Amino acid sequence: MYAKVILSLKNKEVDKVFDYFVPQQYCPLCVGVRVIVPFGKGNKSTEGYVVDIAEQTEVPSQKLKSIIKVLDKGNPIFTKESILLAKWMQKKYFCTLSQCLQTMMPAGIKTKFQWQIVLKKEVEEDVFISSIEKTLINFLKQKQGIASIEEVEEELGKNTQNAIQCLKEKEVIVLRQKINQKSYEKQVILYTLSDNDIAIKETWEKVQNKANMLAQKRIMEYLADGKEVTAKQLKQELFLTDSPIKTLLKKDVLKQIKRVEKRQVTKNNILPTEAFIPTQEQKQALTILTDMLEQKQKKPVLLHGITGSGKTEIYMQMIEKVLQKGQQAIVLVPEISLTPLMVERFLSRFGEKVSVTHSRLNYGERYDQWKKAREKEISIIIGPRSALFMPFDNLGMIIIDEEHESSYRSDTTPKYDAREVAMQMSHMTGCLLLMGSATPDLVTYHKAITGEYILLTLKNRTKGSHLPHVTVTDMRQELEEGNRSVFGRQLLEAMKQNIQNKKQTILFLNRRGYATFVSCRQCGHVMKCEQCDIAYTYHYSEQELVCHYCGERVQNPSICPVCGSKYIKYFGTGTQKIEQEIKKIFPETTVLRMDLDTTTSKNSHQKILEQFGKGKADILIGTQMIAKGHDFPNVTLVGILAADLSLHMASYRASEISFQLITQAAGRAGRDELRGEVFIQTYSPEHYSIVLAARQDYEAFYEQEIQIRKMMNYPPYCHIFTVVFSGKNEKEVIESARYLADIMLYYNRKKQFEILGPTPAILSKFRQEYRWRILIKCQQEELLRQFVIYCCEKWYSLKKWDVLLNLTMNPINVI
Q1: Model's pTM, two decimal places?
Q2: Which domains does the chain have, with CATH numbers?
Q3: Cα separation of 7 and 10, whole Å?
Q4: How large is the average pLDDT for residues 470-498?
Q5: Contact, 440 vs 306, CB < 8 A?
């Protein structure tokens, strides 16, 4: 038997299948298990993944190597379906198959290897050894003849490499690899009565009438019915110390049992709730979705519902139908901050069938949830994009809540889009894909209204509450009237009234995608590239404005080119500054802040939201993580500060992102009986994304934005491909970028592609590496993919520069 193995190496040159002989003790071998194999000239122990089994091989017997060890006997990490999905991702996202498989693995189980130095023999008298070699030998003797390289370097310093090599050549020492497999299973020690009936009988007779043995008697009585409990439980239940437990262990009356315990990551005191009676709109959506569950070929479904329209209730009622069929469901949420809220609602409906996974859980906790899914202990998993890879074997539904969110796109290799991967999973398994949003991604909505997806609409709030009343504050006018504060006067007055009325306020700072742009505070004019209609980015060092699409450069103006004002500068503010201002103006109020600084610790999102939900703060200040999904009945006022920040980021999606954030933030107000009030503060009150977000009119925004996309040839009317060059040597990075651009121009003789650049990337230097970028547009995705790969292969073949290429199709941004 022969195993087809993919190595767990990132190098593209070894991104292929290698054949290995399967020793008899490992037969039969399952597809999907991890193995340790020898690789390379030095037969270095390397982790690999078995992707297929064959009865024959074309590798000559003298070159064929054997598997050293199987790590997952009988319990494959990967299924045949997940391996097929990984192969699809490999092609789609320009990465190695190993990288895709590792993305699907439960967190933290990758095998680590440690080099050890083993003392082989005593040094013969006629062999010369240096003083450092002698010191190394003596150290190994102290360590019983074996030590890791890390131990040697820690004790003797890092200048021991030559000594190690010399002793190896003299055959005094050998180097070997040790496999370190850390187990993330939690083991608990339980106590129960032993199988030694004689010891139990003798001890029982002794403890009957002896006061000093009363504790032992109580333990034996407590465990008489076969209980298995921890020492902690025994001590708490019977008010004991460790002493009688240890005594009974010595007498062989008690025995210890080791058990694997899966960690609980959800609350277990949630009160159950029943399904709500659906509104007429919800009934119509549920009828269509229920019919689709029975179809073999299912189109993706977009559920477009305004904020507060009951999308989550539709999710839960559809999942109920999936569970009735004996199937499982995956629910994706974009932010860790939304996970506790969603989980709590699902727990109240589905109980222990629900679990959660996200990066704030430790490796052991995440591993346990992965095992629960594989062992069918749970049927619903809630989490961010990584939850897609939970090992469910009968998937009935994938739900992507707030599908427009950029966090569904990975910014590390493989740079996958969870929505695209979910669609491929739906195609492979036949499960139903349901995407929900009040402000859908414009490309998603375009596909829905053109028939590629099914479109379902919810236009009314479920509780009969109205959308909030929205006021747009022109901050230019505030400045003219002498108000230099970050707060408009109307917003301050509304906050004062809200505090007096014992109602709560959310202040949202629009920092999403913030890049330094230049704006006039007098007239609101923003410096934009005329060729691309994209805001220039301000570069501190050169004092220049740069378009990061076409490379156009202009001098930073000292006065506004429109109104002549000297109040033109790069723009920005922060949540801490806002918190300080609030405390100055309203010193008696309690303020909570939710941003990256306050949410670094475990469960910090949940604690802040629980505090606010219980009314322990008057005002919640935050960035995009408070703009969506939260439902606080006592919040009647929302202030959106600096709505312009995302509006002028260097992206063709700037208007769309601004509309989404403002609409979502405004939707937090007045979700109960009282009508909410929203204040949008902006220097661009006439911009269509601000005007239409204030009206919460998505359809009108789509009609206006889609015309601009068509005119400027942006998605959905084309596909965009970015090639980013990075390296330590700036000259090499620039030269290599220009060379690839020349290759592309040469092969673009039919003018099927629009090639922009090379230009410096927005993030032109990162971690001591210089970065340049080429952007290519084309209407046909596959043609664009083939063209870029062909040109890059020509570039790679030169092997001329120490420069890395990063390839991304339809990037969420172009930094």
Answers
A1: 0.82
A2: 2-111 (3.40.1440.60), 113-180 (1.10.10), 195-252 (no CATH), 280-458 (3.40.50.300), 469-514+573-709 (3.40.50.300), 516-571 (no CATH), 719-809 (3.30.70.600)
A3: 9
A4: 92
A5: no
